[in-house]
């Protein structure tokens, strides 16, 4: 089950059924089974508070993923996404909102599938996976 929620903003996912179907296919392609993912779309201030409170990072970010899975190969988590950061990213990366939105939400799923982005090598692998799956939207 994939759920879309909002905090501190008014936002609706375009094509929610297609988006959920696409994210499920990513999870299955990575060899995992979906239990539940809650996407919480919010503003910068809300996500910054979470970043400081739970991760002790005093920075803005576009996404924070909390893995709640208790068993290997089962996906369960909460993914917080700043819509304001996505809008700013479109300017920084010269892309559309739709493309950047897809990149960010699949990024969260890839974290739940065990991918990281802390090193240059990990970040390249993550970007390659994002690009690969976005092609199948």
Strand order of the largest sheet: 1-2-4-3
The structural class is alpha/beta
What is the count of structural domains? 1
Instruction: Predict the CATH topology.
Output: Collagenase (Catalytic Domain)
CATH class reads: Alpha Beta
Are there runs of 5+ residues with pLDDT below 50, and where?
A: none
Task: Return the CATH architecture.
Answer: 3-Layer(aba) Sandwich
Note the gap between the termini: 18 Å
Write down the overall geometry. globular
Percent strand equals 15-25%
Number-wise, the strands total: 4
**Cα-atom Rg, whole angstroms?**
14 Å
How large is the count of helical segments?
5
What can you see in these coordinates?
- With 137 residues, this protein is an alpha/beta fold.
- It has one domain (2-134): Collagenase (Catalytic Domain) (3-Layer(aba) Sandwich).
- It has five helices and four strands, in the order βαβαββααα.
- Strands 1-2-4-3 form a four-stranded mixed β-sheet, sandwiched between helices.
- β3 (63-67) and β4 (74-82) form a beta hairpin.
- The longest helix has 16 residues, at 97-112.
- 25% of the residues are buried.
